[in-house]
Design goal:
mainly alpha, 7% strand, Arp2/3 complex 21 kDa subunit ARPC3, two-stranded antiparallel sheet, two-stranded antiparallel ribbon, 263 residues
Length: 263
């Protein structure tokens, strides 16, 4: 079926918007729920915020494949800006003066049965504000996430296009898995060590526990990366037809330096 140029352009931009929305939502969930709860999935001990994070790598791989490196790097940069926004809002909420105690809702103050050591290394003795507790557990995770995000996401995009260039646009499974597995290893090591580094140095978390968190974090992401190979193939196959793209063609014009030989 022949489509008008305007309709094709609209389809391509809407598809990019959907992929970008999924990417940014998954990234934001990681930062907001972060390490507020740890769950056990079989042998893996995971922060609940990690659950949606593998979607970010699937989205950047799809955007890299369909829209090129420029769009993928642009999305990663937007995500970095949102990380700064989240950290800024959390910091503003922490430093702003609280309302007087007589009008403060009772659920804003939590009574603790025992002292609690926060990821930052600070110890809360008896009671703590609900927001202060969320800020203490989330702000450090957001900072760690930002550090890992910068390294892992840009690494993923660059490695994806490196393998695409080396294989001359062939072997989608290779560039998908090799780029994601390495970049997620970088992400897992950085996010756990930065988040819990202070607690580890203070002796509040053992090295074995730290290694368990890193290995569980990476194992989950690696399994998701391997499992998304088939969905990636199906999505690329369907979206190329939907977006009216020829093999090796991008949905947006590419600089000459980024052009990939058509397989």
């Amino acid at each position: 079926m022949s489509l008008s140029a305007a309709l094709i352009t609209e389809r391509r931009e809407r598809t990019f918007l959907v992929l970008a929305g999924i990417f940014l939502s998954a990234m934001t969930l990681l930062n907001v729920v972060g390490i507020t709860r740890f769950i056990q999935l079989g042998p893996l001990a995971l922060a609940v915020g990690v659950l949606p994070y593998p979607l970010t790598f699937l989205c950047t791989d799809l955007i890299s494949e369909l829209y090129g490196r420029g769009r993928a790097n642009f999305l990663v940069s937007v995500g970095l800006g949102i990380n700064f926004l989240i950290l800024g809002v959390l910091t503003l909420g922490a430093v702003a003066p609280a309302v007087p105690e007589e009008v403060m809702p009772p659920w804003q103050i939590l009574q603790l049965a025992a002292p609690v050591t926060l990821p930052s290394g600070a110890v809360v003795e008896s009671e703590v504000g609900l927001f202060q507790l969320i800020y203490a557990t989330t702000s450090g995770a957001v900072f760690a996430s930002m550090m890992a995000y910068i390294a892992a996401q840009y690494c993923d995009v660059q490695l994806y296009h490196f393998w695409k260039r080396v294989t001359q646009g062939k072997h989608l499974w290779l560039r998908n898995n090799f780029s994601t597995l390495l970049s997620q290893l970088v992400d897992s090591v950085m996010v756990v060590t930065v988040t819990f580094g202070a607690a580890f140095l203070a002796g509040d978390i053992a090295l074995a526990a730290l290694l368990t968190l890193v290995s569980s974090n990476y194992a989950f992401k690696a399994l998701c990366a391997l499992a998304d190979t088939l969905p990636l193939y199906l999505a690329v196959h369907w979206l190329r037809r939907y977006l009216q793209l020829q093999p090796g063609e991008y949905a947006v014009a590419q600089p000459v330096s980024e052009a990939t030989p058509t397989p």
